[in-house]
């Protein structure tokens, strides 16, 4: 959501498209519907796997709190609402909406056959800034694509960290992930390298977009928090994975969006 808002305001401020509260609401709704569909489908598809994993067995679908059929209906309703909302934006985003849905739903299958699943998740989330930009402009541009690449690499890096919790489980059940393939030490090194690339992409986007000081303050905090999570998690110290995954990354993205949008609107 934070990067979707950045994509929206990029179009409004950098290319002088008119601001519309209705369109902003539609972008927010699309993000909500897409996330609902993706999360619910993941829970539906992985219900048997989650039931075998001590860490995930208490989730609503594997625990039987929510019947699997209801979860699937929830997915379909949100997918339809997502496509319906894009219809009221412009034809380009409407015609691309099935592609976006395919990517975010297909991710749930990927750990069954490839350790690149983290990057597929990143690809799904990376559609947010470019999708929001397209909703305003109806055309592609390099700057929002750069922000999408930031999201892709950032997400892949922190999802590798999150997957450390299930390294042994994934191996035992022939599921694919970078930690299961490379081991925790090499997985963390790869994640660190990916986040270095994320930082480079963010700096590049800032330079190309000719952003001001406020943007760079937010970018500095974002990059600092990006690498702070690597201090929290070590191969033999996984008790802070959730703090790194949820708290630190959530804070990083929200504060960066606030600074970046403030820079675009007021400076």
H/E element sequence:
HHHHHHHHHHHH
Name of the CATH superfamily? UbiA prenyltransferase
From the alpha-carbon coordinates, what is the Rg to the nearest angstrom? 19 Å
Number of helices: 12
Q: Roughly how much helix do the residues carry, as a percent range?
A: over 70%
User: Could you tell me the strand content as a percent range?
Assistant: under 5%
Helix/strand/pairing category: mainly alpha
| Level-1 CATH class name | Mainly Alpha
Q: What is the name of the CATH architecture? A: Orthogonal Bundle
Span between termini: 23 Å
Shape, principal axes of CA atoms:
globular
Q: How many E strands?
A: 0
Mean pLDDT: 94
For the record, the count of structural domains works out to 1
CATH topology type: Tetracycline Repressor, domain 2
Main β-sheet, in a few words? none
Q: In terms of per-residue confidence, which ranges show pLDDT below 50 for 5 or more consecutive residues?
A: none
Summarize the structure in words:
The chain has twelve helices and no strands. With 267 residues, the protein is mainly α. Helix 6 runs antiparallel to helix 7. It has one domain: UbiA prenyltransferase (Tetracycline Repressor, domain 2), CATH 1.10.357.140.
